[in-house]
Amino acid sequence: MMCTVYLDQVAKPVPMADGAEAAGKQAVSMDKENLQAMIQHTKEQLNSLFHGPGADYVVFTEGVGAAFDKTLRSILKKGDHVLVSPMESDAVMNILKDMEGDVAYSLLPCNEKGQLVLFDEEKGEKGFEAVERLMRPNTKAIIINHASEVCGTVLQVKEMAEFARRKNLLMIANTAQTAAFVPIFMNIWGIDILTFSGGYGLLASEKIGGFIASEKACEFLGGKEGLQSFEMNPLDIERIGQLSRAFEFIKETRLFNLCSTAQKRAEQFIRKVQHVNGVHIIGPGYKDRIPVVSIQTDFMDEKELEETLKKQYGIVIQSGLHGAEQAHKTLGTWPRGTARFSFTYFNTESDIDKITQALWQLTVHSDKVPDVKRMPKE
Q1: Stretch 167-184: mean pLDDT, rounded?
Q2: The domain containing residue 316 runs over which residues?
Q3: What is the pTM of this model?
């Protein structure tokens, strides 16, 4: 029987943290007092992970997409303008397009690796001059996807939050991909709305998410008491229970071990696969990324690659646009899309060897030489 290698962790963590599924089932049958204690403790864990303003500012929603929808539609009003990274998910871009006519937006400059361009050295710029040029008198907020779900690039949220603070703008950051992989300091950096997912790095379900609001952001959301109106009702007790147990697992295993192991797998993947004939790695090299890597190949399209890897080798990946059309246009991979490999603590070096061997075997259909210009650098 073929052993499955699961490399689509960013879409859905498989497996979840040890004991998470059982903890979710147990949570459903908790008495009211223990249930409230578990929910509060989970919010405290989230607030601690992100170094936020307090557990009372944490709100649970039906996934990270709902967190965007609820906050953006409440904060942005007719006549507002926002700056947004070109690496955003469709969840954000569709909301902004839906509000077009009332709310205007400008895409921040970005390079082919998915990194924000804050200034242009060739033009003699420095600081945030490339960003400054996009500012309008009615600019209200900056929206940044902390890391791309397409290619794994980590964007400069800390720097953009500093800029937002100086310009008295709201800073909205999505950490769905970076939670547990990249240190995040909401209070110190000055993030006003931080959205999160219970999936990927948190090793629970992607169907639970939410946001944390700063005191400043609360002014636009009906005050601290008004935050409760944004919370899912009824709460998804089973998935909050899973997330609560996942935090305990993270604590037991140690966060550094979890993220360093996953990052190591991504680096091993890049180092080995970049030498496979006809494979092109999209985005940055070994640094400035989370353990998500996208490729394109010369020997078959991405959908065919996904299906072939699953059928012939038992390797599960995801192909396509990954719910981020604008990001692909920025990376130059639109409309073709990419084949995406994403890793967690549970993936092994033998998983990397298996995918490398599979890609080598599939190159027999290609006589093309790799394009060295597209290979990642340190």
Answers
A1: 96
A2: 5-14+254-363
A3: 0.93
